[in-house]
Structures
1.
Amino acid sequence: MRTPFRWLRRNLVVIAGLLTLAYLLLPNVVVTVFSFNKPKGRFNYSWQEFSTEAWQDPCGVADMCGSLSLSLRIAFWATLGATVLGTMIAFALVRYRFRARGAVNALIFLPMAMPEVVMAASLLTLFLNMGAQLGFWTVLIAHIMFCLSFVVTAVKARVMSMDPRLEQAAQDLYAGPVQTFLRVTLPIAAPGIAAGALLAFALSFDDFIITNFNAGSTVTFPMFVWGSAQRGTPVQINVIGTAMFLVAVVLVLAGMLVGRRRNRKST
Amino acid sequence: MTDTSGDVRLTGISKRYGSFTAVHPLDLTVPQGSFYALLGASGCGKTTTLRMIAGLEEPSTGTVCLGEQDVTALPPYKRPVNTVFQSYALFPHLDIFENVAFGLRRRGIKSVKKQVGEMLDLVQLGEQARKKPHQLSGGQQQRVAVARALINHPKVLLLDEPLGALDLKLRRQMQLELKRIQTEVGITFVHVTHDQEEAMTMADTVAVMNGGRVEQQGAPAELYENPRTTFVANFLGTSNFIAAEVHSVSGDDVVLTAGDGKLVLPRNRCAAATGPGGKVLAGVRPEKISLAHADDAGTVPDGRNRLTGRIAAASFLGVSTQYVIDSPVCAAFEVYAQNVERDPRLTPGAEVVLHWNPAHTFGLDAGQDVEAGIEKVEEDA
Ligand SMILES: Nc1ncnc2c1ncn2[C@@H]1O[C@H](COP(=O)(O)OP(=O)(O)O)[C@@H](O)[C@H]1O
Ligand SMILES: [Mg+2]
């Protein structure tokens, strides 16, 4: 009786890890499996038979690919805007002593802490009072706004751990302010900026609540999925979901590969 | 005619942070090609002074000149000066080769391969060119930092406690190495350290700093033999002080009274006023003193300064023995005696006569703290 017990104790960490992983990945597996389903009715909720129909015609559902491309465009511009602004704010907060620095530091966290519905409703009130036309631009502005806090937080952590003497060393070695920023500051802050940008992209792409309030008649991908779920779920939604998941996995693997090659080169 | 383009001249330079003065106005001249050490305890303003030369800190008052050129208004990247930072500040995202090539590339030099290779060979790191800084040991990182600065052939190389993070053995080795490199390249080195032994072994000239001021500067032997303040006397090695009063001045000598005895001191080694009745601290280094048992008091030659006392403690250190002696004029007088012919009677409790050549006495102003600079010696910067 003691041997299996000991085996269990020795492998407990591995088992726990595998179980957690399964917990995380199971939804994705279901999505992928059901992307090969051929449902009887309008709802893709029970397994019928294997088919690659949906994969062969991913844009076969009216308006779906339009909403997908809109979401991707919004996510791209929101990521760009939030990353540039957020990086500058993070540097300002860490590197410069100015009045109300503490207040700004606290206020930056507010959008993360505020319930999303509240923010969505207030934004709508604001846009309506300003007479803005709801659509692409209002959604983009809203997305940049709530992504900012996350970018600032990610970049700030990185900048705070940066030794200011590295930049002084660069200056001492004949690098002017621009060169110092490009050759030393930016490369060292890059992991924080990249993390912030990834977060911003993911948040913007699948945001529903704020978008739904402020989009007017524009329909993003999450809004499309939500809307179609009332009437029936086309298999193509699972196809898009699986494709996005695969793209993310490939990107992560590529990142790891590049990192490993760079390490090997330097040893 | 001597080349003065590598001179560093600081004139009335000072630095204030708010109401706190880190460096009081000071004048310093470091001659071209010399190895100059700024020595002082942690927090005395060494780094601040160095950073003002590099241009990384703007002086509150005063000017910095390199040779004939006033560089006070120039940003660091326009000064022909390079720095080896206290914790090296190597670029973590660049490999060793690129770290060393950084300065050359910024000045638009395209073919850096040969120069970088030679420089890495000079510091014996040719094999490590493609490693990242975090893959090197402390001593190797230190050499990269030196190479990265030296490759630019600066007029002046500034080193901020470059050996502070190394263990003792490696530190001794690197001291010799740095000294060799300095002799070889002939560049002016300004070396900051809190280690008096390091400053004395490496530098041609040492400036002792205390509380944002330069207390004294000079060749190491000169500082050791002729300290002008108790701080310098205690910071560089150990000193004994006897509170005394000026009795008279005869020729080149000052005659002092201490207790009921008399001490003689060369006039040119007295940093205090020598008017009759003036208070003077008479100092003498522990290794200059000879001990004789009280029974042999008659054998002590005439013309030597002498005191009496009792041995309070003796510790045998192999090459020498360190005695602590209680004397009426000075508690805890330290004496180091070479173990050549040891008198077996010199044990704790024995009455002794201390005597030394008057030429080895120095006189300091009595208005200072006798203990200045003592406990700070062990402190790490
Ligand atoms: N940026 C700063 N702001 C305020 N005080 C400072 C600053 N830099 C240094 N100081 C103070 O100036 C004094 C001298 O510092 P420093 O030159 O680094 O000393 P050292 O290098 O001799 O140890 C210290 O008391 C330190 O606290
Ligand atoms: Mg320092």
2.
Amino acid sequence: MRVTLQVWRQANTDARGEFKTYQVDDIKEDMSFLEMLDVLNERLTIQGEEPITFDSDCREGICGTCGVMVNGQAHGPEAATATCQLHMRSFQDGDTITVEPWRAGAFPVLKDLMVDRAAFDEIIASGGFISVPTGSAPDANLIPVPKSVAEAAMDAAACIGCAACVAACPNSAANLFTAAKVAQLNMLPQGQPERWDRVLNMVETMESYFGSCTNHGECEKACPKSISIDFIAIMNRDYVKAKFKNRRLVSQQG
Amino acid sequence: MTMTLDSKIPDGPISDKWENHKFSMKLVNPNNKRKFNVLVVGTGLGGAAAAASLAELGYNVDVFTYHDSPRRAHSIAAQGGINAAKNYHGDGDSIFRLFYDTVKGGDFRSREANVHRLAEVSVDIIDQATAQGVPFAREYGGLLDNRSFGGAQVSRTFYARGQTGQQLLLGAYSSLMRQVGLGTVKLHTKIEMLDVVVKDGRAVGIVTRDLVNGEIRSWSGHAVVLATGGYSNVYYLSTNAMYCNATAAWRAHRRGAAFANPCYTQIHPTCIPQSDEFQSKLTLMSESLRNDGRIWVPKNPDDTRRARDIPESERDYYLERIYPSFGNLAPRDVSSRAAKRAVDAGNGVGPLKNGVYLDFADAISRLGHDKVEERYSNLFEMYERITDENPYETPMRIYPAPHYTMGGLWVDYNLMTTVPGLYAIGEANFSDHGANRLGASALMQGLADGYFVLPYTIGDYLAGWLNTPVVPTDDPAFAAVEDETKERVAGFLASRGTRTVDDFHRQLGRLVWDYCGMSRDESGLDKAISEIPALYEEFKSDVKVLGTGDSLNQTLEKAGRVDDFFQLATLMCVDARHREESCGGHFREEYQTEDGEALRDDENYAYVAAWEWTGDISNPVLHKEDLEFENVKLATRSYK
Ligand SMILES: Cc1cc2nc3c(=O)[nH]c(=O)nc-3n(C[C@H](O)[C@H](O)[C@H](O)COP(=O)(O)OP(=O)(O)OC[C@H]3O[C@@H](n4cnc5c(N)ncnc54)[C@H](O)[C@@H]3O)c2cc1C
Ligand code: FES
């Protein structure tokens, strides 16, 4: 098959970017979308044009490295599918496809389709953990965890940190990403001691980089792992409670 | 010869060695730990666990990764699970049994003392991960669930759905990020290590390239830890992530670190076959599918009918035919080789005739559609997403693919390479799996090394350097390596040839796969040993890398990695050529039993082959570490 690509090219963070058009002939339906870009890149190199920069690694939807806007949709047209799992059979012969990087203030474009998502690491560093120095853990079966709780924690923990949620959100909010980690740890018995500090610190760090959530729900639709926005409700509930608890503590000390 | 291999295996009975060793090692007093700077390269299970644990102990840590976040390391992709001798199910598991299974599974080519320690600390890993909030699968009573995995007769594999590696890595990553937040670890992302700096015979730092702006600079430390993963991507097509490469290990090798058993590579039998020549990555399908699927190919190589239309009498269920007792559950290496024979004979299936069928029709009629769906729905869905074929209706197509590398940097019992102060952990070292790794044991080893071994053993070395400042990065030793690195990078840009990096990598991969893949023989290896260096010369003069060195340039990054793969590939073939026996993943056609099983030669080859770099890629020097088996009796693996 044959497609026309309109690809965002930008030399570096400070440069001005623009769309460039490429004809890609002779590709197969069974190729993945990123393999199609690989093929284009080899052809460009032979022609003497610098290949298109894009990030990807595992190519099986688990590492969260890949991710571009395809025709305005984060990770493209298929539901619950990361860009690396998208195949050319999702397009028609002769289609024109627009390919852009994630667009969000917190994610500067490094080059072409690659962005810097370091802000996500900052959110985790502010509280996305349980403080348990190596070697200090009790026997794993000491604290039974109800199966339903473990399953719900796993649903949240499935987040791959690709940032499609931010890219899809009209406000560039990172609530789904943050909530997935808050909810995973705050639901588990092991996460209780740091529950209130965790949610406060993570939400505040999140707000320093990202926009506010106004419940559009676009994040859930774009998520390649179908992480539920119900986790945002859990985070919000814990955040309000934590604020209240802290105020009470402050007034007790006061 | 200046290199000596001292394994530093502690004295005493196997079960006391690690305890005794921990007691006899030198310690660094807690207040002194902050005076030491440790450089950790890699943030997979090994690196993230080590960096976090070292920082918790009080060391200053710098951690490096070429990814944009530590959480992207290839460990994230592991599906199946992690072994541990918890014996939670009371089915007779024990540290000794896990130790025994691992030594035997490794076809008696690993070091007993290391493997025993691995089995000992396996139990602590599960405690640690659970406390971090890793959502392992649980039973209705709330306790941890286990499944069984190849090579074991007990249930000792812990798992988190089909995403065990992801969850363990995110656990280690969370501990790492806590330390980053506390300021005890400095995190350097999108930074690639390109060389090790050795001064007065010990590692004093590294040289890196900033992948965003191209800056080449030095970092100094009291010790350097490489946790940089395996080298399956030397084959071009493998189940490893696209960026996985051997540069860190290879550059360390060139600076004096011996490379052990490079020819021990593992081929996984159930992967989705390549769909076209531009495919760059293969996907693994869990081996559990072989419990219910039947493997076959059409008897007639020219059969063009759809699978369903081929009558039973014209199908060859070759595993069931050749291995009647094990059938479709024949071990990884045996079933991989049988598939290769079928495809090589022209009986392959699919558009490129490069696969064999894995058929669930019988299972569906025996168990019912619902039962099969319950067992395998996520795998079937993953398969359909990639191939657009529905495994309920038409058999899956599978083919073996490179998956894991047992070989790696030689390390002693303390995980130190032959360069003092330079350590290697996780898949990057050779230590625990011998000639074959059992399923669910790589995650265990990476975390064992990172959480529970290295943080202790490194103190023994560091204690000797108390109050010695790090070598400053303006020392001539650093300047020399920086200059060499700059020259090397500039060389790729200057060559202005006609062929792409991937084009060369594909050709190299093909050679290594054909001659040093699932099965090897003398004449093929001889051919590879002459063809690979010749192709390498072509690569150096004819590779085409566009763009500049002082900007983000993915082709330039890849050129350096492929350059190192060429050199490593040659060493793999030299190693495979010299080892005139078959063991584990190393199968030499000349050395097999009548049933086609691997024929070991314990008399002559019960040693670790550790190679020393000489500057001539085809003529390294061999050093041998003899292996002694005092606790597990040498025996032939059997599947009868
Ligand atoms: C598809 C698949 C499934 C698997 N399933 C299982 C399983 O179920 N159970 C099991 O036990 N094992 C499994 N394995 C094997 C296991 O996942 C790996 O062996 C293990 O995770 C390796 O961990 P590591 O920490 O050594 O390296 P990796 O996770 O590969 O990490 C390497 C790190 O080093 C960094 N790095 C490398 N080179 C450089 C450099 N030059 N400069 C800077 N940074 C660098 C990378 O950025 C990365 O952070 C599987 C492997 C594959 C491919
Ligand atoms: S490349 Fe890993 S999720 Fe797409």
